[in-house]
Design a protein that fits this description.
This is ABC transporter ATP-binding protein. By secondary structure, this protein is α/β, with parallel strands linked by helices. 35% of the residues lie in helices and 27% in strands. The two termini are 21 Å apart.
Amino acid sequence: MIHLKNVEKVYRTSSIETLALSNINLHIQKKEFVSIMGPSGCGKSTLLNIMGLLDAPSQGTMELDGNPVNNFQDKALARLRNEKLGFIFQSFHLINDLSVLDNVEIPLLYRRSSARERRLLAQQALEKVGLSNRMSHFPRQLSGGQKQRVAIARAIVGRPEIILADEPTGNLDSAMGNEILSILQQLNSEGATIVMVTHDEAMAKRTHRLVRLFDGSQVL
Protein backbone atom coordinates (compact mmCIF):
# COMPACT_ATOMS: atom_id res chain seq x y z
CA MET A 1 0.00 0.00 0.00
CA ILE A 2 2.75 2.51 0.99
CA HIS A 3 6.20 1.87 -0.45
CA LEU A 4 9.25 4.04 0.15
CA LYS A 5 12.43 3.21 -1.75
CA ASN A 6 15.82 4.80 -1.01
CA VAL A 7 14.10 7.85 0.47
CA GLU A 8 16.26 10.73 1.62
CA LYS A 9 15.14 14.08 3.00
CA VAL A 10 17.46 17.05 3.24
CA TYR A 11 16.49 20.47 4.58
CA ARG A 12 18.61 23.32 3.27
CA THR A 13 19.02 26.96 4.16
CA SER A 14 21.54 29.42 2.76
CA SER A 15 24.17 28.21 5.21
CA ILE A 16 23.02 24.90 6.72
CA GLU A 17 22.15 21.49 5.31
CA THR A 18 20.35 19.02 7.59
CA LEU A 19 19.90 15.37 6.68
CA ALA A 20 16.55 14.36 8.20
CA LEU A 21 16.14 10.95 6.55
CA SER A 22 18.70 8.69 4.88
CA ASN A 23 18.13 5.62 2.67
CA ILE A 24 14.69 4.69 4.02
CA ASN A 25 13.26 1.52 2.50
CA LEU A 26 9.87 0.69 3.94
CA HIS A 27 6.76 -1.13 2.77
CA ILE A 28 3.49 -0.81 4.68
CA GLN A 29 1.04 -3.52 3.68
CA LYS A 30 -2.71 -3.11 3.50
CA LYS A 31 -4.45 -3.54 6.90
CA GLU A 32 -1.12 -3.42 8.80
CA PHE A 33 -0.74 -1.50 12.06
CA VAL A 34 2.86 -0.26 12.18
CA SER A 35 4.62 1.77 14.89
CA ILE A 36 7.56 4.08 14.29
CA MET A 37 9.86 4.75 17.25
CA GLY A 38 13.10 6.60 17.90
CA PRO A 39 14.59 9.47 19.92
CA SER A 40 13.45 13.05 19.41
CA GLY A 41 14.78 14.56 16.20
CA CYS A 42 15.45 11.21 14.51
CA GLY A 43 13.07 11.87 11.59
CA LYS A 44 9.85 10.14 12.72
CA SER A 45 7.52 13.02 11.93
CA THR A 46 9.35 13.78 8.70
CA LEU A 47 8.82 10.20 7.60
CA LEU A 48 5.14 10.37 8.53
CA ASN A 49 4.75 13.63 6.59
CA ILE A 50 6.24 12.04 3.48
CA MET A 51 3.91 9.05 3.78
CA GLY A 52 1.03 11.48 4.25
CA LEU A 53 1.94 13.46 1.11
CA LEU A 54 2.53 16.57 3.21
CA ASP A 55 6.21 16.63 2.24
CA ALA A 56 8.25 15.22 -0.63
CA PRO A 57 11.52 13.28 -0.46
CA SER A 58 14.69 14.96 -1.69
CA GLN A 59 15.68 11.66 -3.27
CA GLY A 60 14.06 8.25 -3.68
CA THR A 61 10.49 7.30 -4.48
CA MET A 62 7.20 7.13 -2.63
CA GLU A 63 4.39 4.94 -3.99
CA LEU A 64 0.79 4.76 -2.88
CA ASP A 65 -1.16 1.72 -4.10
CA GLY A 66 1.62 1.05 -6.59
CA ASN A 67 1.50 4.56 -8.07
CA PRO A 68 4.61 6.79 -7.78
CA VAL A 69 3.53 10.16 -6.36
CA ASN A 70 6.81 12.09 -6.58
CA ASN A 71 5.73 14.02 -9.65
CA PHE A 72 2.09 14.57 -8.74
CA GLN A 73 0.91 18.16 -8.83
CA ASP A 74 -0.42 19.84 -5.68
CA LYS A 75 -4.05 19.41 -6.72
CA ALA A 76 -3.65 15.67 -7.27
CA LEU A 77 -1.82 15.28 -3.95
CA ALA A 78 -4.55 17.18 -2.13
CA ARG A 79 -7.19 14.90 -3.66
CA LEU A 80 -5.28 11.77 -2.59
CA ARG A 81 -4.85 13.10 0.95
CA ASN A 82 -8.55 13.85 1.22
CA GLU A 83 -9.74 10.55 -0.24
CA LYS A 84 -7.24 8.03 1.12
CA LEU A 85 -5.62 9.48 4.25
CA GLY A 86 -6.73 10.42 7.73
CA PHE A 87 -4.43 12.35 10.09
CA ILE A 88 -4.30 12.31 13.90
CA PHE A 89 -1.99 14.75 15.68
CA GLN A 90 -0.66 14.91 19.23
CA SER A 91 -2.01 18.44 19.69
CA PHE A 92 -5.52 17.66 18.37
CA HIS A 93 -5.72 20.75 16.10
CA LEU A 94 -9.40 21.33 16.80
CA ILE A 95 -11.05 24.68 16.06
CA ASN A 96 -12.23 26.08 19.38
CA ASP A 97 -15.05 28.20 17.89
CA LEU A 98 -16.67 25.20 16.20
CA SER A 99 -18.73 22.50 17.86
CA VAL A 100 -17.47 18.94 18.04
CA LEU A 101 -19.80 17.96 15.19
CA ASP A 102 -18.66 20.86 13.00
CA ASN A 103 -14.99 20.02 13.67
CA VAL A 104 -15.53 16.46 12.50
CA GLU A 105 -17.31 17.60 9.33
CA ILE A 106 -14.36 19.70 8.10
CA PRO A 107 -12.65 17.10 5.83
CA LEU A 108 -15.95 16.54 4.02
CA LEU A 109 -16.18 20.21 3.04
CA TYR A 110 -13.31 19.64 0.62
CA ARG A 111 -15.26 16.82 -1.02
CA ARG A 112 -18.23 19.13 -1.58
CA SER A 113 -20.48 16.69 0.23
CA SER A 114 -24.01 17.87 0.93
CA ALA A 115 -24.81 19.27 4.37
CA ARG A 116 -27.02 16.29 5.09
CA GLU A 117 -24.32 13.79 4.16
CA ARG A 118 -21.68 15.66 6.18
CA ARG A 119 -23.89 15.67 9.24
CA LEU A 120 -24.74 11.97 8.96
CA LEU A 121 -21.15 10.83 8.44
CA ALA A 122 -19.87 13.06 11.28
CA GLN A 123 -22.50 11.67 13.64
CA GLN A 124 -21.53 8.12 12.70
CA ALA A 125 -17.82 8.85 13.25
CA LEU A 126 -18.50 10.33 16.69
CA GLU A 127 -20.63 7.36 17.64
CA LYS A 128 -17.75 5.07 16.66
CA VAL A 129 -15.40 6.81 19.13
CA GLY A 130 -18.02 6.98 21.89
CA LEU A 131 -18.81 10.70 21.76
CA SER A 132 -22.38 10.76 20.49
CA ASN A 133 -23.35 12.66 23.66
CA ARG A 134 -20.80 15.43 23.06
CA MET A 135 -21.69 16.51 19.51
CA SER A 136 -22.90 19.99 20.47
CA HIS A 137 -20.04 20.66 22.90
CA PHE A 138 -17.03 22.82 22.08
CA PRO A 139 -13.39 21.70 22.41
CA ARG A 140 -12.84 23.83 25.54
CA GLN A 141 -15.54 21.77 27.28
CA LEU A 142 -13.73 18.46 26.68
CA SER A 143 -10.96 16.56 28.42
CA GLY A 144 -7.72 15.75 26.60
CA GLY A 145 -8.87 12.22 25.89
CA GLN A 146 -12.20 13.44 24.53
CA LYS A 147 -10.41 15.94 22.28
CA GLN A 148 -8.27 13.15 20.88
CA ARG A 149 -11.35 11.04 20.21
CA VAL A 150 -12.83 14.00 18.31
CA ALA A 151 -9.60 14.18 16.33
CA ILE A 152 -9.89 10.47 15.52
CA ALA A 153 -13.51 10.95 14.42
CA ARG A 154 -12.39 13.78 12.13
CA ALA A 155 -9.65 11.54 10.72
CA ILE A 156 -12.06 8.69 9.92
CA VAL A 157 -15.13 10.66 8.83
CA GLY A 158 -14.18 10.32 5.17
CA ARG A 159 -13.58 6.59 5.62
CA PRO A 160 -9.90 6.70 4.60
CA GLU A 161 -7.94 3.55 3.84
CA ILE A 162 -4.88 4.83 5.73
CA ILE A 163 -4.64 6.55 9.12
CA LEU A 164 -1.41 8.34 10.06
CA ALA A 165 -1.12 9.11 13.77
CA ASP A 166 1.67 11.32 15.15
CA GLU A 167 2.02 10.66 18.91
CA PRO A 168 -1.77 10.21 19.39
CA THR A 169 -1.33 9.30 23.07
CA GLY A 170 1.54 11.67 23.83
CA ASN A 171 -0.53 14.26 25.75
CA LEU A 172 -2.67 11.73 27.63
CA ASP A 173 -2.35 9.74 30.84
CA SER A 174 -1.81 6.00 30.56
CA ALA A 175 -5.47 5.04 31.06
CA MET A 176 -6.72 7.41 28.37
CA GLY A 177 -3.79 6.47 26.14
CA ASN A 178 -4.88 2.84 26.35
CA GLU A 179 -8.42 3.84 25.39
CA ILE A 180 -7.16 5.70 22.32
CA LEU A 181 -4.97 2.77 21.27
CA SER A 182 -7.94 0.41 21.66
CA ILE A 183 -9.94 2.63 19.28
CA LEU A 184 -7.08 2.51 16.76
CA GLN A 185 -6.87 -1.26 17.09
CA GLN A 186 -10.60 -1.52 16.43
CA LEU A 187 -10.29 0.66 13.32
CA ASN A 188 -7.43 -1.54 12.15
CA SER A 189 -9.50 -4.68 12.69
CA GLU A 190 -12.20 -3.10 10.50
CA GLY A 191 -9.71 -2.71 7.65
CA ALA A 192 -7.81 0.55 8.14
CA THR A 193 -4.06 0.59 7.57
CA ILE A 194 -2.45 2.52 10.44
CA VAL A 195 1.01 4.02 10.89
CA MET A 196 1.64 5.47 14.35
CA VAL A 197 4.60 7.46 15.61
CA THR A 198 5.08 6.90 19.35
CA HIS A 199 7.61 7.21 22.17
CA ASP A 200 5.79 4.54 24.19
CA GLU A 201 7.37 1.08 23.90
CA ALA A 202 4.37 -0.62 25.49
CA MET A 203 2.01 0.98 22.96
CA ALA A 204 4.30 0.05 20.06
CA LYS A 205 4.39 -3.60 21.13
CA ARG A 206 0.62 -3.79 20.75
CA THR A 207 0.87 -3.10 17.02
CA HIS A 208 1.80 -5.55 14.25
CA ARG A 209 5.29 -4.25 13.54
CA LEU A 210 7.82 -1.80 14.95
CA VAL A 211 10.12 0.33 12.80
CA ARG A 212 12.96 2.04 14.65
CA LEU A 213 14.78 5.17 13.47
CA PHE A 214 18.03 6.66 14.70
CA ASP A 215 19.59 9.83 13.24
CA GLY A 216 17.34 9.60 10.20
CA SER A 217 18.15 5.98 9.35
CA GLN A 218 16.34 2.70 9.93
CA VAL A 219 17.72 0.51 12.70
CA LEU A 220 17.91 -2.97 11.22
